[in-house]
């Protein structure tokens, strides 16, 4: 163990026997895998383990926590107008860690049911899963975690969602069995007890919040309790832990932008955690928090500049439907006439007049050339979101 890792336990291993005939239960699993022995990890129970960190790690975690709290407070309590875009930025970055990416335009169109682009739909599902996680933050237990995963996979594979996995999975090494994997999570029979223990750890009140969240996330990723979307589910749970600890009260801050910027460091910290070193994963989360704050501030500054330019461009009078539509675009930069009608509380013809005014003023552009089921977007906002995604993808 490294200095400061105290009494933390490394995972151990047990020998199991892999037999495709017995262990393959669905069409996504390898039917041609070879039978044979393999070593499955056995994570320790952590609910009552002491968490001992060196002073520097604790200080860095405290500074990162303070930065997150400060930005959240600046954005205000309650329904922050920036909250929807920051939430989408988090889910896009979290999905990108799993190589699921889509431009902001595709994500926004999928969000209003105007696109069937597969990756964009997955990111929209991630947004709904994060919203479900925040709604259950006060009672974050096993049922809540299962509900988050079910929400994330709402439109895919009913046999692989909404329950702990019922078969062995592995990471790396190809599709022919766990024998050559880079990491084999615990056997499925161990998952329920390990998740109950993890929830007990998450409920402790004697730990500083960011180290507790980082360790809980690493333990979750080690257990890998589901057949699919473990990483994205785990990062949605991470957002729920930030909310429950009162680090974030107003918005979802895109912590995944920091993790995405150094995925090698993120995955290495998880590997080090499994060897009994907890400082690395705490430091990784602290760095991700600082990056999230920095990238969020750039996005917020970009959005402020965009709204200032809108005020200079718009020719409609004060209080008009066109000006009131700007409030919607700041949250939802893609809209249909139906959304405009709902937001403005006016008739469809009047909503279209408001949209046409914003088109004439260069604030909105129509997507596509159809005359029915038309969609308009605020490209300035989409470019700001794409710029944030590009910054997050730049590896250190």
How many domains? The number is 2
- Assembly status: single chain
Please describe the biggest sheet, giving its number of strands, its sense, and whether it closes into a barrel.
3 strands, antiparallel
H/E element order: EHEHHHHHHHHHHHHEHHEEH
Structural class based on helices, strands and sheet pairing: mainly alpha
Strand order of the largest sheet: 3-5-4
The mean pLDDT is 92
Net shape: globular
Estimate the strand proportion: 5-15%
Q: Helical amount among residues, as a percent range?
A: 40-55%
Count of DSSP E strands?
5
Cα distance spanning the termini: 27 Å
Low-confidence stretches: none
Supply the number of helical segments: 16
Question: What is the radius of gyration computed over CA atoms, rounded to a whole number of angstroms?
Answer: 23 Å
Full CATH superfamily name of the largest domain: Fido-like domain
CATH T-level fold name of the largest domain: Fic-like fold
Molecular structure report:
It is a single chain. This protein has 396 residues and is mainly α. The chain has two domains: 12-298 and 388-393, Fic-like fold; 316-386, Arc Repressor Mutant, subunit A, CATH 1.10.10. 55% of the residues lie in helices and 6% in strands. The protein has 16 helices and five strands. The protein has helices at 20-23, 55-74, 83-97, 104-111, 118-135, 142-152, 191-202, 209-223, 230-244, 255-261, 263-274, 279-313, 321-329, 337-344, 348-360, 379-393, and strands at 12-18, 36-42, 334-336, 365-367, 375-377. The chain has a three-stranded antiparallel β-sheet. Strand 4 and strand 5 (375-377) form a beta hairpin. Helix 4 (104-111) crosses helix 5 and helix 8 (209-223) crosses helix 12 (279-313). 41% of the residues are buried. The model has no long low-confidence stretch (mean pLDDT 92).
């Amino acid at each position: 163990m490294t200095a400061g890792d105290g009494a933390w336990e490394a995972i151990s291993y047990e020998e199991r026997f892999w037999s495709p005939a017995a262990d393959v239960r669905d069409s996504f699993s390898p039917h041609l895998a070879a039978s044979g022995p393999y070593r499955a990890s056995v994570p320790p129970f952590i609910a009552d383990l002491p968490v001992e960190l060196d002073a520097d790690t604790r200080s860095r975690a405290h500074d990162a926590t303070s930065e997150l709290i400060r930005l959240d407070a600046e954005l205000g309590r309650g329904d922050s107008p920036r909250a929807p875009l920051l939430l989408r930025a988090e889910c896009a970055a979290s999905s990108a860690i799993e190589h699921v990416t889509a431009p902001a335009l595709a994500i926004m169109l999928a969000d209003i049911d105007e696109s069937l682009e597969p990756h964009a739909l997955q990111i929209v599902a991630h947004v709904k899963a994060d919203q479900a996680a925040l709604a259950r933050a006060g009672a974050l237990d096993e049922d809540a975690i299962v509900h988050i995963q079910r929400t994330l996979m709402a439109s895919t594979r009913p046999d692989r969602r909404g329950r702990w996995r019922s078969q062995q999975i592995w990471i790396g090494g190809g599709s022919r069995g766990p024998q050559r994997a880079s990491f084999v999570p615990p056997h499925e029979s161990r998952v329920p007890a390990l998740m109950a223990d993890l929830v007990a750890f998450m409920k402790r009140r004697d730990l500083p919040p960011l180290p507790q969240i980082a360790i809980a996330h690493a333990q979750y990723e080690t257990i890998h309790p589901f057949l699919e979307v473990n990483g994205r589910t785990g990062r949605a749970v991470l957002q729920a832990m930030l909310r429950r600890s009162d680090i974030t009260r107003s918005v979802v801050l895109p912590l995944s932008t920091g993790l995405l910027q150094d995925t090698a460091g993120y995955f290495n910290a998880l590997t080090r955690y499994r060897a009994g070193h907890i400082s690395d994963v705490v430091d990784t989360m602290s760095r991700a928090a600082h990056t999230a704050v920095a990238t969020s501030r750039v996005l917020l500054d970009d959005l402020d500049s965009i709204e200032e330019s809108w005020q200079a461009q718009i020719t409609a009078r004060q209080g008009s439907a066109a000006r009131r539509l700007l409030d919607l675009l700041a949250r939802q930069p893609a809209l249909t006439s139906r959304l405009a009608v709902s937001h403005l509380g006016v008739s469809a013809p009047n909503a279209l007049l408001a949209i046409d005014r914003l088109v004439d003023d260069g604030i909105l552009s129509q997507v596509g050339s159809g005359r029915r089921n038309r969609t308009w977007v605020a490209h300035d906002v989409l470019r700001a979101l794409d710029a944030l995604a590009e910054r997050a993808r730049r590896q250190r």
